[in-house]
Amino acid sequence: MERYAQYEHLKVEIADRIATLTLNRPESRNALNRKLIHELRSIWLDLAEDHDVNAVVLTGAGDYFSVGGDVKHMSDRPGGDFLAKGEIADPSASRRLLVNMLELDKPVVCAINGDAVGLAATVALLSDITVMADTARVGDPHVRVGLVAGDGGAVVWPLLLGISRAKEMLMRGLLIKGPEAERIGLVNHVVPRDQVLTLAQEIARELADGATWAIRWTKLSVNKILKDRMNLVYDASNALEKLTLKMEDHQEAARAFKEKRKPAFKGY
């Protein structure tokens, strides 16, 4: 466990060849700040080198999986400062997080115990198998705060839902509950919230006890599709998101969120 001692916002537990990762900022609904994004970027590399781990369960502490970025603090900084001083100071941080996750050959089961939003939804949906609470919601509402869905949503949603349905979800910034997410094929399993982690652990146990290299190389074979789509889509969508960070519409959305009112978008 020494290799995991540096993790602050990511709780890491290893037992019987299964690593349980918990996004551990419950006081902020597990919002993805700069530190947690860095830890999520690094954890997949550490797990790849840990020969005591054969499967991974990913979940969130408290009532949420993760609400994604911290919208409340967006209004406190001008758009130009976001790249230099903001919560996600490294503009390639989320890309490396997702690529490192896709490169991990060990199976990842995501226990979506509560709402999964934005980048957090992307992380959850890029897991190999998803188990979601029936009361939880999942979505990528970047457009609601005047931003392009640039940190992976444009990559994974069309692959899971098809282009037409994915565009509606992303362009309207919709959040949907577990039963609907299961019906349209976005997640694998939906169960009552108190059963989410149990089922995820049962699936992880099956995978950990299975034919190791057959499972790992099957995952890597399928993930070539995801990696190809990352190369095709991610850089353009992320660059466009950075442009919208500097627009007045985004600043107005952030102010409106903080002031608990509907934003008045101007189109620039």
UniProtKB/TrEMBL annotation:
It comes from the Bacteria. Belongs to the enoyl-CoA hydratase/isomerase family. This is Enoyl-CoA hydratase/carnithine racemase. It comes from Hydrogenophaga laconesensis.
